[in-house]
Amino acid sequence: MTLTGHCAVRDDAGRWRAAPGRLSLSGGRIGALTPDADADDAGSLILPALSNAHDHGRGMRTVAFGAGDDALEIWIAALGREPRTDPWLRAAVAFARMAEAGIAALNHCHNTADPHALLTEAEAVSRAARDVGVRVAFALPIMGRNPLTYGDPAPLLARLPADEAARLSKPRGLPSAMAQLALVEEAAAFEHDLFEVQYGPVGPQWVDDTILERIAEGSARTGRRVHMHLFETRYQKEWAEAAYPGGLLAHLDAIGLLSERLTVAHGVHLDEDDCALLAERGVRVSLNTSSNLRLRSGIAPVERYLRHGLRFGLGLDGMAFDDDEDALRELRVAWRLQRGWGTQEVLARDRLLDAALIDGRRAILGDKDRGGQLVPGAPADVLVLDTGRITGDVLEGCADLLDLTLARARAEDVRSLLVAGRAVVADGRATGIDRPAAEAELMAQARAAGAIPPDAALERLRAALAVYYRCGCHRQIAPEEQTA
């Protein structure tokens, strides 16, 4: 197969440029890139495919079932109201939307509908990855502490009616964290060339230290990657400072969790020492700009990342700015916030493209291939954009095509997406599944399952959570929970 158009390439100095050429593909790999002036009229831009370094693969968007945008700790309270649907359908719809936005590889940080059916769900997600045709790193969720709040939940429960407090205080019936951990190797039975299983400790505030140690040991022994939320909100950072007076990251480093096999999501509240340590250990970050805006978490300190050489990719987190999985728009939102103000230059265009095309992929899959660039031998994960809409009013020679792409491109401009040389999107539509029909079936199942609209009990819980964190109750750590 040969693709013709402007091809985006990166030189040895890290500069990205687009020039007319022909890109040959063979055996799922990139063959040769040949300059060709005649390709100038093809009306297309050929790029390495985009990566989504952190997502949850929800086919149903959270606002649709009543979990409206709010501070993370308040928003989470409504997530359990998502209607129960077919796990294959849930994942396949999400993956197809991402593919149609130009995403070839993603981290799927799984949220289980039924903790006791997690293996069944994992198998369904594996099938969805194969059917849609995108590369999926499945972070199997592991958690075990702080189910209600970070820290002592007593002040929260005291603000609620007795019956509601009693209901929330009941054990959640989760399998033990050790049992969840054991499922990682069982789920590995579903791995294939587009699906791999990773350890998914949900976040340090939700995972016991002993389990984190086991995960670090297992990752070192097997090479299996680890994906974990970290310091998404200031309340998580403040909880960590109270629970780990010697420093949470110093503790995670001491148990061997910080390594080149770890990707952390968000990192909004990483300080200078945190960034230096993570960079030294080769950890990567997923920058989730729109999610952090929608969930009121803040703006990640990318200038600090860059100062310390901390590599990062871009993630949608299931919370794209317009709730539409548009990864091309996400580039724009991230750059507008992180480029620098006035004449300050913080995040250069080329470094942004590195994050979107190279580092995001490595945050998902590690360094095992040469993906993310149009170079011979790299996996043929290739995005083709139709440039007609974004160039229609541009005077000849007056605008760089990559600059135009960052300024204007949207998911609607995706012409095709190839993964390992297979066309998983053609003419803007997923080829592996009928995405509109699948969406319609997903919504039919959700409506049949029955919605649970926001009610007075949920509003009381949300209000109590807001007071809990506003007053600093998350810093009240039981002595047995504190780590030196």
How would you sum up this structure, described in words?
The protein has helices spanning 72-75, 87-100, 118-132, 154-158, 162-169, 177-187, 209-222, 234-243, 248-254, 272-281, 289-294, 302-308, 327-338, 349-365, 388-391, 401-408, 435-449, 456-470; strands at residues 2-10, 16-26, 29-35, 44-48, 50-55, 103-109, 135-142, 195-201, 226-230, 262-266, 284-287, 312-314, 382-386, 414-419, 422-426, 429-430. It has 484 residues and is α/β, with parallel strands linked by helices. The N and C termini lie far apart (59 Å).
Highlighted features:
4-stranded parallel beta sheet, 18 helices, 16 strands, 8-stranded mixed beta sheet, globular, 484 residues, alpha/beta
Provide a brief overview of the structure:
The chain contains 18 helices and 16 strands.
Architecture blueprint of SSEs:
Elements: E1 2-10, E2 16-26, E3 29-35, E4 44-48, E5 50-55, H1 72-75, H2 87-100, E6 103-109, H3 118-132, E7 135-142, H4 154-158, H5 162-169, H6 177-187, E8 195-201, H7 209-222, E9 226-230, H8 234-243, H9 248-254, E10 262-266, H10 272-281, E11 284-287, H11 289-294, H12 302-308, E12 312-314, H13 327-338, H14 349-365, E13 382-386, H15 388-391, H16 401-408, E14 414-419, E15 422-426, E16 429-430, H17 435-449, H18 456-470
Parallel strand pairs: 1-4, 5-6, 6-7, 7-8, 9-10, 10-11, 11-12
Antiparallel strand pairs: 1-2, 2-3, 4-13, 13-14, 14-15, 15-16
